Fold:
Amino acid sequence: MSEAYFPVGPGLGPEENFLSLEDILMSQEKLPGRVEAALPRLAAVLGKGAGAGQSDGVPEGSKVEIPLWLAKGLYDNKRRTLSVELPKIYKEGWRTVFSADANVVDLHKMGPYYYGFGSQLLNFDNPENPEIAQTILQTFIGRFRRVMDSSQNAYNEDTSALVARLDELERALFRAGQKGLNDFQCWEKGQASQITASSLVQNYRKRKFTDMDG
Structure:
């Protein structure tokens, strides 16, 4: 019998976990940028498909929409191969909105990886990085209580409206809160399942007994 699949969580801060499906999807999000030095053989990747007889490179000065994973690979502060621009939700105008009331923003519509993608932007040298980091942190703090309160006050009901405006990280927190609530309700009703040893512990015991027999 095959073991159950356990999802791998995303990385923390500016680091990615390439075993995490969420991080893989997040790294596909596009960044606006400008090519500072010609990029050979990348026209097709960046949607700048060359016609017959034309170069397959991207010329200097071109404006591009580039996936995060490629932007991180090409970015070099010393060689100035690529410069990236802030997506509008991380610019000063939106940071002002977040500081006024972060709960009014539809993060999923603007994101949907607001926290993870914003943390990745800190890999690029930008004078606004301290303000971006502070806004991301304060937004999370400001929205956390509402997310968890919602998850604890919705039992056996449709939660689609509650999670519609949440970023993917917030949705994961909401699911965790819902699981805790459901587990507690089952325990109160005497429906909690029997506690059993984890498969890791069972496998360890099997190996230990095998070693003793040998």
Q: What stands out?
A: The longest strand covers residues 30-35.
